[in-house]
Amino acid sequence: MKIRAVRGMNDILPPEAKKWRRVEAVFRRVAERYGYGEVRTPLIEDTSLFSKQMGETSDVVEKEMYSFERHGDSLTVRPEGTAGAARAFVEHGVGAKEPVTRWYYLGPMFRGERPAKGRYRQFHQVGCELYGDPGPVSDAEMIELAYRFLEELGIGDLTVHLNSLGSGDTRARYRKALLDYFTPMAGSLSEDSQRRLEKNPLRILDSKDARDRDAAAKAPSIVDVLDEEDRRHFEGVKGALSAMGIPFVVDPALVRGLDYYTRTLFEIKANGADLGAQSTVCGGGRYDEMVESLGGHKTPAIGFAMGVERILVAMPEVAQDEAKASVYVVAVDERADAGAEPAPAGVSLQTAAALRLGSELRKRGIACLVDARGGKLKAMLKRADASGAKLCAILGADEISRREVTVKDLAAHAQDAVGLEGAAEVIAGRVRAKAGSQPAGVEH
Ligand code: ATP
Ligand code: MG
Question: How far does residue 286's CA lie from ligand 2's centre (Å)?
């Protein structure tokens, strides 16, 4: 039986991987522009880290985690990046070393949910976390970073959805208001929601079940029960966003599925993309209590994560530089061509010269392929054309005896001879001159 990739987990082959690198490169660049540094945490953490922080009744913890026992520990392959980053922040006492910390990360996350377009079991996120700044301006700056990043990738038609969950007492008051509202209609809610009603009625607002959507849409709005300080914070976020020219809509139905959020919540949707229910490319919010609950000092924090697979769907196609190599170096070996003699021990002079030229070109940063497979020159030139290379460097017995290399411009069908000594420098110069006369390629 053929072994296939695990359901919901994808291979990314070239040239697709190049698009991924572009997303990652633009993300790093934008994040670093805002003063963020990269953090890399393990893929596997203690299960309790996620169950405590994300919440026992969250979808992720209830049914999506890849957890297993090893050496007596319960471990989980990370479903998200925020809890692990906060664990590292506390573990390394980072808060004592700097007043404000800005971290970004990127990498795979794992959730055993039902696969669909833009929804996978291994998916990838890029994200940011900011620790130590309680003010609303940092919330707005975080949203701006996410928005500008998506803009820079050419994703237009974005909507920022904004809400506040309040903090402390507000949460408790809102919970009570929801309980009063949902209890009389409990019988018509989904089984999940009925079960969660007592424990966490907020979850019902986030349900994707059709039986819950209508009731959720008419539920009391948290914005109406915010206390004075929560309200001032929320107004501050909105004011700062307006000052930065970031459009947003206040969306009282936005609750997001995790327990750790306090006050600001946001999502960014890419409306133009054909993603259906998966059009949310970015989700984030404030989580002022997490660091303390992990044993650190009370430290306000805010962050977001974006799904790379969804970003890639929403991104416009950009011209890809298809060529894998700029130079195709061929060693024309007549003995191999004749096919009569067995391959000699060691390599022919032509092959040796071709390998040396290849090394010299690569040292100069030029991508090249060396073809010492033998065969007729015509067949080799065909392979050179098919490779997409711009130049072909030919090393046959004649060239070797004249201490030359024939350089063929594959598009212009022109060729000349270049002295073997210093050939790499000359060929590299030609490749650079060609690259300079063409539209800029894809960054990586
Ligand atoms: P959704 O409501 O779509 O399930 P979520 O609220 O569970 O998303 P978060 O945990 O906030 O998602 O993760 C942030 C972002 O990561 C999402 O907005 C989405 O772009 C991406 N994401 C989440 N889960 C998946 C998945 N299973 N496959 C692909 N991308 C995902
Ligand atoms: Mg989800």
Answer: 18
- Using alpha carbons, list the distances in angstroms from residue 172 to 179, 199, 205: 11, 12, 16
Pocket test for ligand 1, best of 66, 113, 119, 203 (most atoms within 8 A of CB): 119
Please report the atom of ligand 1 found closest to the CA of residue 113: 27
DSSP string, 94-149: HHHH-SSEEEEEEEEEE-----BTTB-SEEEEEEEEEES--SHHHHHHHHHHHHHH
d(CA 239, ligand 1 centre) in Å: 28
Question: What is the DSSP pairing of strand 101-110 with strand 122-131?
Answer: antiparallel
* Span 224-247, pLDDT tens digits: 889 999 999 999 999 999 999 999
Phi, psi of 154 (to 5 degrees): 85, 15
Q: Tens digit of pLDDT for each residue in 152-202? A: 999 999 999 999 999 888 888 888 899 999 999 999 999 989 988 888 888
C-alpha closest to that of 279 among 260, 307, 303 = 307
Q: How far is the CA of 188 from the centre of ligand 2 (A)?
A: 23
Please, is 405 exposed, middle or buried when counting C-beta atoms within 10 Å of its C-beta (0-12, 13-18, 19+)? buried
Q: Which residues contact 360 (CB under 8 A, 6 or more apart)?
A: 423, 424
Dihedral angle at the C-alpha atoms of 374, 378, 379, 384, nearest 10 degrees?
A: 100
User: What is the reported pTM?
Assistant: 0.88
Residue 178's identity, in one-letter code, is L
Confidence of residue 82 (pLDDT cuts 50, 70, 90): very high
| Residue appearing with tokens 């903090």 | 167
Element of type H or E holding 269:
strand 262-270
Distance CA(66)–CA(109), nearest Å, equals: 10
Distance 118 CA to ligand 1 centre (A): 9
Give the tens place of pLDDT for each residue, 268-304.
999 988 888 899 999 999 999 999 999 999 999 999 9
Ligand nearest to the CA of 306: 1
Atom of ligand 1 at shortest range from CA of 311: 20
